[in-house]
Amino acid sequence: MRAATVAAALFGTSCLALPVAAETxxxxxxxxxxxxxxxxxxxTPALSGLGGPPIWQVRIERYLLDGKALIEASRVAERNRFPxxxxxxxxxxxxxxxxxFVAHEAGSARVAGMVLRFVDPQDFYVVEADALAGxxxxxxxxxxxxxxxAGRDTKLVVGKAETLGVKAIDNRFEITLxxxxxxxxxxxxxxxxxRLGIWSRADSDxxxxxxxxxxxx
Length: 217
Hints:
Number of helices: 1
CATH architecture: Sandwich
Structural class: mainly beta
Order of helices and strands: HEEEEEEEEEEEEEEEE
CATH topology: Jelly Rolls
């Protein structure tokens, strides 16, 4: 029996309904049921910046849940190339999002990113973990122009699962790593609801887990 129903039974029908906790959505990007080398399940490839279209594929990854991950397989070493894979749903302005990932020791970049308020490949926010630079950044991409809003230097471990997190409420953003607060930021550049997804950079060899989303709108 739900909490509100129990309360009404105990205290009468005039009792106010108790608030229902927001549901956390598990957005599967790489299904454990498909073969390695298959395309993504829960997102659509897109590209920000330069270079040809990205190629997202399922790969075995023993460090992540279900033993599968999504990787960007073309791995083109173009500095201003940012492969994306964007989930169709949910569309939200305010949300808490977590993304497990594993950065591997290969390529000229070692980046994992989480996209929010995605309108199109020219307009969105991203939380980026850069293992080479040892920094987590909060970026805006508006009209294709990339800008770091805030960031913090922090140790990122290559070859081990870590989890990026962000809580977006209106123009306030709280960034976490492995559940621990890193920094906060404010920005009003993108105020409309948008989609969520993942972001890579250049030829990063990064394994992306699934997205876990709690819509707060």
